[in-house]
Design a protein that fits this description.
The chain has 461 residues and is α/β, with parallel strands linked by helices. The chain has helices at residues 6-24, 32-40, 44-47, 63-76, 91-100, 122-125, 150-160, 273-288, 293-301, 330-342, 356-360, 392-401, 439-460, and strands at 53-58, 81-83, 112-116, 133-136, 166-170, 185-190, 218-224, 227-231, 244-249, 254-259, 262-267, 310-315, 318-324, 347-352, 382-388, 409-412, 429-434. The longest helix has 22 residues, at 439-460.
Length: 461
């Protein structure tokens, strides 16, 4: 770690002053103080003291949920954890978190930290933050005009990682599992499921050829996209062996994990496969940190996914579900669509997929919808799809291309009042699938859906 110089102390004091002023004004102080500190002292992150143990979590999908799970479990077990949960996951956000928990001399008050790290910010953070454990949940296609191809993101992370960090990786992800060739690693995976397939049914699979010899890659089974288990018949490259192997009992909502310490049984926090991956990631990290099986199991017993990402309530016998489905992220949307199609009963769906920030500085790039499996929504038990937002006609066109009958499609630019278009004719569940930054809008739409169901129920009595 670089020493503290005059520039560092000026940056520290000014950022603390900015943080105090913002808090007095009841403004968010999770970004600007760190931005100011780095502006004054570009290597501020390298000079400020850090906790003894640092966990970083990056990846295309699931990093926020994994961080929240780990943080909740650690705090439930008495740990005082420094984190950037309240704000930004780029270098300024990490700096703001460190400023908030440092003394006037730059000494850190806490002994353990967990940081969510934006993939593209890795090159600005890892040269200064040397994590004890560096977690990567997965790497997929994301926002096309920001993250481009997953190999592009892989190279950014891989070229920035400190070799001293112990990596925790998804053995089922044939892209991210190859990170950190020189690093010590612990792998997690989910054992073969009855729903796994011989070949990918998704539009996109970014690992069709062997990453070593570049010949066609044989999959033992595919779960979704390039998630699965594979072995190259030409050079012998294969999926890594999992140190923590999840075996799912979906009927009883039990996650059995085969660990180096024996088989451990956990309550599943969700019946969706992607949230089960998130839980398994968190379990792996917590056990590597030294928490006992009993402590980790107790932490997950009553844990729920935060409401901004998933909520469910029942009104007049109809389930109203909100589920985050990241806009401009074809894989995340495809996974949610796949999950919803397999849920029982007749369903009406409300789509709120417009990216809030894209509206402010739009690239007008809608190519991601052609990488996304809207075909999953072409199901007999999905009786009505309400498409909302300024780009509703783009999504309608894509759904028509997916074979969804036009009489099932309704459009409106009014996202909050979109539930007024619900038919509620034999409907068992209403799913509101919303973009990451449209959580508040989705909650308002949920309240509107509840009101519509109650109102129509009262009229039919």
């Amino acid at each position: 770690m670089a020493g503290k110089n005059l520039r560092f102390y000026v940056a520290l004091y000014m950022s603390k002053l900015a943080r105090t002023a913002l808090r007095v004004l009841k403004r968010n102080a999770s970004y600007f103080p760190g931005k100011l500190a780095i502006k004054i002292c570009p290597d501020f992150l390298g000079r400020i003291n850090k906790p003894e143990t640092i966990i970083t979590v990056t990846g295309t999908n699931g990093k926020t949920t994994v961080c929240n799970m780990i943080l909740d479990a650690l705090e439930a077990n008495g740990y005082d954890v420094l984190n950037n949960k309240a704000g930004s996951n780029i270098n300024a956000g990490v700096a703001s978190s460190l400023v908030a928990e440092s003394t006037m001399s730059g000494k850190c008050r806490k002994k353990i930290a967990i940081f969510e790290i934006d993939e593209r910010s890795s090159k600005l953070i890892y040269p200064y933050i040397k994590p004890t454990y560096a977690v990567c949940t997965n790497l997929f296609r994301d926002s096309i005009h920001r993250n481009a191809n997953p190999e592009f993101i892989f190279n950014i992370i891989n070229s920035s990682l400190p070799e001293s960090s112990h990596m925790i990786l998804n053995a089922d992800d044939l892209i991210s599992c190859n990170l950190g060739a020189a690093n010590d690693k612990t792998y997690f995976a989910i054992d073969r499921l009855a729903t796994d397939k011989e070949e990918s049914v998704n539009l996109i699979n970014d690992v069709r050829i062997c990453p070593k010899c570049h010949k066609p890659l044989h999959y033992n089974y595919v779960r979704y996209h390039h998630i699965g288990n594979a072995k190259c018949e030409f050079c012998g490259y294969e999926s890594p062996k999992a140190d923590y192997l999840g075996k799912l009992d979906m009927d009883n909502q039990i996650l059995n994990v085969v660990t180096p310490f024996g088989t451990e049984e956990y309550h599943m926090v969700s019946n969706s496969i992607f949230n089960t991956y998130n839980q398994l990631t968190a379990i792996t990290v917590l056990r590597k940190l030294g928490l006992s099986y009993e402590a980790v199991k107790k932490s997950f017993a009553d844990l729920n996914i935060v409401e901004s990402r998933y909520s469910k309530e029942t009104v007049n016998g109809i389930d109203v579900v909100t589920h985050m489905s990241k806009g401009q992220n074809p894989i995340a949307c495809s996974c949610v669509f796949d999950y919803v199609k397999d849920e029982p009963g007749n369903k009406e769906i409300i789509l709120i997929l417009d990216d809030v920030f894209d509206r402010q500085g739009s690239s007008e790039n809608m190519t991601w919808i052609f990488d996304c499996d809207f075909e999953f929504l072409n199901q007999p038990d999905i009786t009505n799809i309400i498409i909302s937002g300024v780009r509703c006609n783009d999504y309608k066109l894509r759904l028509l291309m997916a074979g969804v009958p036009e009489e099932k499609l309704m459009t409106t630019s009014d996202e909050v009042n979109s539930p007024e278009l619900l038919k509620l004719d034999g409907t068992d569940a209403v799913y509101i699938l919303h973009e990451l930054y449209a959580a508040n809008t989705a909650m308002k739409a949920r309240d509107k859906a509840v009101a519509v169901i109650k109102e129509r129920g009262a009229k039919n009595e």
